[in-house]
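Can anyone check this?
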Amino acid sequence: MHATSNRTLRRYILYQVPGWLLCAAIAVLLHRWTSLSAWTALLLVLGWAAKDAALYPFLRHAYEPDAPPAIEQLVGLPGITVEPLAPHGYIRVRGELWRAELSTGAAIGPGHLVTVDAVRGTTLIVRPDERTNSSLVS
């Protein structure tokens, strides 16, 4: 495991500590106020920690310290227009709906391919895909 992986794991664990402490406090209170056995309370806390360990492989990238924002990872990806872009509208990228703006002056009708060139705030800056030059509308 190299330094970035260790740093990511350490960061993930530190973010989980408050949840573990809260789970332990609730388990102790349940043990004191109800008929919950100490072993069951301990199993609840261990189960909570096991849940976090099982989720780590899926959440690891969100805890990487130098990871670019998720929206910036869309640059270069193809999308499809769901309404006319003249010059603003909406496109679908990887199954998600995004507000988009054309980087060129020509309008594009719905159902045509575009490529994400940049990001401005939460708006994707797009251009017509080279494979759909005939889809341009004036």
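Reply from J.R.: I decoded it. The first helix runs from residue 3 to 33.
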